[in-house]
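From the methods appendix. Each design record in this collection lists the tokenized structure first, followed by the designed amino acid sequence. Records were kept in a plain field format so they could be parsed without special tools. The example shown here is representative of the layout used throughout.

RECORD:
FOLD TOKENS (178 positions):
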């Protein structure tokens, strides 16, 4: 019973922070508010996290690590961005991704850009691909390409009537193959 409660606590906290971020800034949210919304006491919160910043850092890392793992598993070539599994993960966790996008502390667009940069930096043909695609300095082409993909993903997360992950995967595939 205790183990079951222990494993349910992070889920309750995640749901609480998702709900709270929908109408308050992260900076204005207190541990007390998180605990009240999650239906737990402060002692239970502190068994899992040092403070609200540690909580958010852990949740962000866990979420983005899963997103990156899904991208890395399926994308091995920059011309064929197989992002569907990662987008399905976002769709499944849309409310939480939306909540993350509302937090200046998290800075989701920057985090997505960093993930994409890491992904593309591990592709040996990426510099050649950029030169052929844009015909400008590799540095600027890389910034433009990664920035555009990040902007499309971020806009999709923010959209109220968002397209399906399949449609967005096609949009990103078409963008990468133009």
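DESIGN:
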């Amino acid at each position: 019973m205790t183990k079951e409660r222990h494993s349910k606590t992070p889920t309750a906290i995640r749901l609480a922070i998702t709900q709270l971020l929908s109408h308050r800034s992260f900076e204005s949210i207190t541990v007390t508010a998180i605990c009240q919304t999650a239906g737990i006491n402060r002692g239970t919160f502190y068994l899992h996290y040092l403070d609200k910043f540690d909580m958010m850092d852990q949740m962000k890392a866990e979420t983005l690590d899963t997103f990156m793992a899904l991208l890395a598993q399926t994308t091995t070539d920059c011309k064929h961005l197989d992002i569907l599994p990662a987008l399905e993960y976002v769709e499944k966790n849309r409310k939480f991704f939306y909540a993350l996008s509302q937090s200046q502390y998290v800075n989701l667009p920057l985090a997505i850009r960093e993930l994409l940069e890491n992904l593309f930096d591990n592709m040996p043909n990426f510099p050649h691909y950029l030169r052929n695609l844009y015909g400008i300095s590799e540095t600027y082409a890389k910034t433009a390409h990664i920035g555009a993909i990040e902007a499309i993903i971020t806009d999709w997360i923010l959209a109220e009537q968002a397209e399906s992950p399949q449609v967005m995967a096609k949009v990103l595939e078409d963008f990468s193959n133009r």
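APPENDIX NOTE: The chain has a mean pLDDT of 90.
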